[in-house]
Amino acid sequence: MARTLCRIFKGCQSICSLPLMKTRLHPSASVLLRTVCVRRMLTLPFRFSPKAQDFSLPNSSWGAEMRQLYEHYNSQCEEEMKGEEKQDWAWKRVPSYNRTLKHATGGVYLSKIYQSKARFFTRNIKEPGAAFEYVLFVSKDEQKCVCIFQAGHLLEGPQGYVHGGAIATMIDTVTVTHASVLTLLIMTANLNINYRRPIPLGSTVLIDSSLNKTEGRKVLISCKVTSTDGSKLHTEATALFVVSRLLGG
Ligand SMILES: CCCCCCCC(=O)SCCNC(=O)CCNC(=O)[C@H](O)C(C)(C)COP(=O)(O)OP(=O)(O)OC[C@H]1O[C@@H](n2cnc3c(N)ncnc32)[C@H](O)[C@@H]1OP(=O)(O)O
């Protein structure tokens, strides 16, 4: 019993230490989050996960362009310094896991809360480079988010080009991550996409998202997919996110 309580306590601590939990919460989101977490934690078993793979770190499939851009943004990120004050930073890399809840900070195993075979959609293909290779950085003032995206061969739509649904997936992923930095328990309510120019399969592109406005429970974000030098506009989109009342069950 004592051990179980200790694990529940650690679970709460882990959830509260997630980057998203440190952001400003909409009051209704805050209440919902506490209710959902506590309800789920009290009914389900915990295990400890020794290691989580962060899929947003470089791997052997990354091309030169992807690596170069990663280095560029990563060099402007917060540096963890032991015993000294943290340096100022312009961007923050957003870690990415294939079972987000399993890999809450502290390694508490939480994904049993949901289905054991469930995987985060964009991170469920084992072969590196085959599908969605990407890394996201969020700006210090949280007004902008940038994603470096390398589209793998499994994402083909028209011959030699990326499928429109895969592009929509990435736009949703980037904008929802951005919106999640601002508030919690959000759902995509509307995604409006204009495809301007096809994206060659295997190429690397930049996905930039900017906060348009927040209005009550609503977050509006606009997004552009461009070539890495910014000269070609591939896709434009706007996204609306709403803090969900339904997520609490
Ligand atoms: C990084 C890991 C995250 C991965 C997840 C990626 C994101 C996703 O793909 S989410 C999955 C896809 N989305 C969904 O399934 C959402 C399904 N829809 C819903 O759950 C609900 O309709 C939801 C939550 C969007 C809104 O429901 P509800 O909380 O009842 O909102 P409701 O009270 O009707 O409306 C709130 C406001 O939003 C507006 N609104 C709601 N839906 C829309 C819409 N589709 N278009 C425009 N405005 C809308 C309303 O007009 C209202 O505005 P106002 O306050 O100004 O009057």
UniProtKB/TrEMBL annotation:
One GO location term (cellular component): mitochondrial inner membrane
Catalytic activity: (5Z,8Z,11Z,14Z)-eicosatetraenoyl-CoA + H2O = (5Z,8Z,11Z,14Z)-eicosatetraenoate + CoA + H(+); dodecanoyl-CoA + H2O = dodecanoate + CoA + H(+); decanoyl-CoA + H2O = decanoate + CoA + H(+); octanoyl-CoA + H2O = octanoate + CoA + H(+)
UniProt domain Thioesterase: residue ranges: 159-231
Taxonomic superkingdom: Eukaryota
Example of a GO MF term: hydrolase activity
Record-level GO BP terms: apoptotic process; fatty acid metabolic process
Keyword Mitochondrion belongs to the record: yes
Membrane topology note: Peripheral membrane protein
CDD domains the UniProt entry points to: PaaI_thioesterase
Keywords: Apoptosis, Cell membrane, Cell projection, Cytoplasm, Fatty acid metabolism, Hydrolase, Lipid metabolism, Membrane, Mitochondrion, Mitochondrion inner membrane, Transit peptide
Matches recorded under InterPro entries: HotDog_dom_sf (IPR029069), THEM4/THEM5_acyl-CoA_thioest (IPR052365), Thioestr_dom (IPR006683)
Enzyme class at the top of the EC tree: hydrolase
Assigned EC number: 3.1.2.2
Cellular location(s): Cell projection, Ruffle membrane; Cytoplasm; Mitochondrion inner membrane; Mitochondrion intermembrane space
Annotated family: Belongs to the THEM4/THEM5 thioesterase family.
Name of the protein in question: Acyl-coenzyme A thioesterase THEM4
Record gene name: LOC114448008
